Amino acid sequence: MLGYVTLGTNDLPRAAKFYDAVAGEMGVGRMMEFDQFIAWGEAGGAPGIAATKPFDGNEATVGNGTMAALMVDSTDKVQAVYDAALANGGTDEGAPGPRGDDGFYAGYFRDPDGNKLNVFTMTK
């Protein structure tokens, strides 16, 4: 069972602004915060997401093929989270819409450090 996803950042204040907006649209806020690490979510709730400066002190880099998927409960919420991401320094990787015919509805974006995320819901 997934507990949380951690993504590296080279600029924690910038990442904090981005994830505060994205998490806020999902109805959650910060649940843990240290000098080098912030986690968003709800303790005991669904898996959370965190931004951290790498423990080894090296530059954070983006994983090729790595993506975190954020689940919400409606297509309107997919749009709201996607819009918040782009309004707070994120970049488009695929506008919200249906993907295939199995009820998967998602929008894709990258955070300001280049980490790829999606926000999705199931419509069927």
Automatic annotation (TrEMBL):
Q: Which InterPro entries match?
A: Glyas_Bleomycin-R_OHBP_Dase, Glyas_Fos-R_dOase_dom, VOC_core
Where along the sequence do coiled-coil regions lie? none
Q: What single Pfam family name could you report for this chain, choosing any that match? A: Glyoxalase
Domain (VOC) spans 1-122
Can you say what this protein is called? Answer: VOC family protein
Organism from which the protein derives:
Pontixanthobacter luteolus
